[in-house]
Amino acid sequence: MSEITNESGSSMSSDTSTAASSSSSHSGAATAAGGGGEELSPNLFKKYELGRLLGCGAFAKVYHARVIRNGQSVAIKAISKQRIQMGKLAANIKQEISIMRRLRHPHIVTLHEVLATKTNVYCVLEFAKGGELFAKIAKYRFSEELSRKYFQQLISAVDYCHSHGVFHRDLKPENLLLDENWDLKITDFGLSAVTGQTRQDGLLHTLCGTPAYVAPEILAKKGYDGAKIDVWSCGVILYVLNAGYLPFNDTNLMAMYRKIYKGEFRCPKWTSPELRQFLSRVLDPNPSTRITIHEILNDQWFRKGYKDINYPIDKQFEFKESGDESRFLNAFDLISYSTGADLSVLFDYHVKSEMFVSEKSPATIIGRVEAAAEEEGMGVTKKGMGVRLHGQNWKYVIMVEINRLTEELVVVEVKTSGFGRDLWRDKFKLAVNDLVYVPQPSLSGH
C-alpha cells in the first residue's frame, strides 16, 4: 500500500511495522548483512543470539533474536546509518526511538534498548509472536465482539499516547501486531509527532499517513489535530475488522480521496445498529464534531465488556509541554544523558548536545540566556521550561531545555547546530558559567 509523502516529497514510512512480528515471509541467516551492508555476528554484542530475518526495508533489516542470558525472544532492527543519512531520515528515526523508549503500555511494542556500531544502529524490541493483525484480517473478517475487543485495546493504547503528547499518525492493521496471547500491540512510530511540533495555530501540518486510513482534514492541507486524525484511523481499522474490507476504497486514488473527504461509506448488512451509529461518529469527516477519545471511552457500545487497563501512569515519562517545574528526572532520563544512549551520538547527527547542573531557578537561567541572545541579535522563542534561540533565517539554532533533578537542582541541556555551536562555546558559556553547580568536597575527606 502506497504512503502519502511528507512536504519534501520523500516517503516517510518506516520499517518498524515488521520489527516485532513473526509473520513476515522473509527468511535468512543470522550472518546476513545488516542494514548498511555490515556482516552481523550471530552473537551480537555478546548479548543477543541472532536468528532468522523477519523483514527488510529501504534502510533497515529486522531479525528474530534471543537474549543469551535468559533465552527471551526479541526482535532486533538493524538500521543503516549511511542510508538514513542519504535519505535525510536520521531526525525521524531519532524521534521514533525517543518516543518509543518513553512509552510503556501493555498494547504498545516495548523498546528494550538501543545499541550501535560504526555502520548500524540496533533497536532491541519486544517480539510479537502472533504477527501482524493485517495478516489475520486478510483471511477472514472478525465478529463484532472480537472487533470490539481489539478496538478497545487500540483505543486504550492511543489514549495513553495522547496523554503523553504523542500522536501516531499512521495507525493501520499493518502497524498492529499480536503477541503470544493474541493481544494487540501498536508499533511503527516513524511518522509520529509530539505536542511541541505544532505550529502557532496549535495544529500539525505535515502531510503523512497511508491513503486509505488518512483523515479528511489532512487532505485539506489546512492543519490538523493529531488526536483527531488518530481517532479517524482507529475508526477505519474498526470498520475493516468488522467488514473485512476498507470503508473508503477505489482504484482511482482521487476518487477514494473524494469519498474520504465527504465521509461516504456504507456498512455491510451484518453490522449492528449500535455499531453503525458508533462508526458514523468516529468516521465523521468534520473534525470539530467527530467523537473524541474521552467520548469513545464513555460510549455504551465501546464499554460493553471493557475492563480498564491498570498500568502505572508514570508522569515522569511525559513529554514536556509546559513550564511545569515540579517534574523530576527519573532514572530513564538520566541514562539518556550518557553518551551510550545519546541518540545524536548514535546517528552522528548534526545537532550536538551538552549539559550542566545548576542550583538556580529555571527563570534565572532562561533570563541570563535571553540577555545574551539579545546582545547577539538572535531571535528568542520560549517553550515550557526552555528557550529556543535562532539566527537570521534560522541558519543556526541554540536550544536550552531545563529539567528539575531534585528540589534544589536542575539539569540544563543545550543543543546547538551550525554556527550556533561556536556561539554557545565562545559567547553564551561565559554568560552562564557562574550558574553551574559545583559539588562541595566531603567534610569527611572521602
From TrEMBL:
One GO BP annotation of this record: signal transduction
A GO molecular function held by the record: protein serine/threonine kinase activity
Start and end residues of each NAF domain: 324-348
InterPro entries in the record: Kinase-like_dom_sf, NAF/FISL_domain, NAF_dom, Prot_kinase_dom, Protein_kinase_ATP_BS, Ser/Thr_kinase_AS
Enzyme class of the recorded protein, top EC level: transferase
Superkingdom, taxonomy of origin: Eukaryota
Pfam families linked to this entry: NAF (PF03822), Pkinase (PF00069)
Region of interest called Disordered, as start-end residue ranges on this chain: 1-37
Limits of the Protein kinase domain: 48-302
Record-listed E.C. numbers: 2.7.11.1
Biased composition (Low complexity): 8-32
PANTHER family assigned to the protein according to its UniProt record, in alphabetical order: CALCIUM/CALMODULIN-DEPENDENT PROTEIN KINASE KINASE-RELATED, CBL-INTERACTING SERINE_THREONINE-PROTEIN KINASE 14
Purpose of the protein: CIPK serine-threonine protein kinases interact with CBL proteins. Binding of a CBL protein to the regulatory NAF domain of CIPK protein lead to the activation of the kinase in a calcium-dependent manner.
Family: Belongs to the protein kinase superfamily. CAMK Ser/Thr protein kinase family. SNF1 subfamily.
Full protein name: non-specific serine/threonine protein kinase
Organism this protein belongs to: Salvia splendens
Lineage, uppermost ranks: Eukaryota, Viridiplantae, Streptophyta, Embryophyta, Tracheophyta
